[in-house]
């Protein structure tokens, strides 16, 4: 245990627990709660100002900012709208098939773009499609939300949990595809995702009716939906108004991802690579100036989720302060005999305890805390921490789809549904979709994770 007085230790535990409780309950903004908790720890002597600053993984913050800036430009290219138009064409107007294609699209984009950004990209596109096809809007938007929250952990770029795994365990970009001679996060989550969408199709969307729609309906009569406001004419064919701008954004995005995948060869931090890609893109489009139909840089900055940035800064410092109590190491030491004697039982308990907890607790804080605990567990020397790290981040990500308390992306999706449908969406209606999605995905991923990662090491 860290050399800390008993009163300071218990005050630190109370501050940590109280801050997490406030974040879960949502009485005040989560970013404010996290920063207040950090400042309280500094004032009671848990850590100094310098130690709090150093507890933040600024590399992860730089990754977030760099990728979010590039994604902000990507959202202005018209490419999401164009992709949605293609989805409408492929579906033939069949509502169930369209929802699955849009969900698959959301999941794939969230591999490299923050899940909240994905929802803000695709929801404005999905709304007129749903109204034109006279489809219920809520299932479509919620499925986009679930899917965008799903695939963020498949690669290193899409969400905070994989970036925290990079911070704590040193997981590199390509290790999310293949590690230690076996498939890791991307192939396992991709297969889980496809099978989960198949379950949802059978459960709720197989009977979607076909309503032929011409995606090039430029200037067509507005279609009125009896359950909502009139839908605008669809003009997806002309969504990309400046192809040169779109090509520039895609080129910088692709180059950034490629460079990040070769981080070890380049010898630079991922945050530096991400910021280099963002600054390179900004410089490129600004130099071309009026020759491009581009957004103003200030507008892109204003759309960044600065509250999330402050929350993540506070979260790292908060967990860093709690780690200084030594309680995580004590917990790891207490659990070490269980995992050493039967890794399969230990991994199963870790997985299925995590799933319901992150369904009602903001999952980033939970995952970061237990990543450190598993690191301490692995430091005992008799256990390979990687099967536990993977099972933790998979359960922590997929289980967070259970309620809006587990993932900010679902809160955003629900707000869009309520605003557009002009009604309150109750927990029963939400759980009708989230429960099936979360349980089917966590069960499928558990089986794959046990077969590929846990049982071979047991």
What labels would you give this structure?
458 residues, two-stranded antiparallel ribbon, globular, mainly alpha, 21 helices
Structure description:
- This protein has 458 residues and is an all-alpha fold.
- Helix content is 70%, strand content 1%.
- The protein is built from 21 helices and two strands.
- It has helices at residues 6-25, 30-44, 49-55, 58-75, 79-91, 95-109, 115-132, 137-150, 160-169, 185-205, 243-261, 263-266, 270-288, 297-302, 306-323, 327-341, 343-360, 363-378, 386-398, 408-421, 427-454, and strands at 178-179, 182-183.
- The protein has a two-stranded antiparallel ribbon.
- Helix 5 packs across helix 7 and helix 6 (95-109) packs antiparallel against helix 7.
- The longest helix is centred in the C-terminal third of the chain and has 28 residues, at 427-454.
- The radius of gyration is 23 Å and the shape is globular.
- The relative contact order is 0.15.
- The model is unreliable at 209-232 (pLDDT under 50).
Q: What is this structure's SSE topology?
A:
Elements: H1 6-25, H2 30-44, H3 49-55, H4 58-75, H5 79-91, H6 95-109, H7 115-132, H8 137-150, H9 160-169, E1 178-179, E2 182-183, H10 185-205, H11 243-261, H12 263-266, H13 270-288, H14 297-302, H15 306-323, H16 327-341, H17 343-360, H18 363-378, H19 386-398, H20 408-421, H21 427-454
Antiparallel strand pairs: 1-2
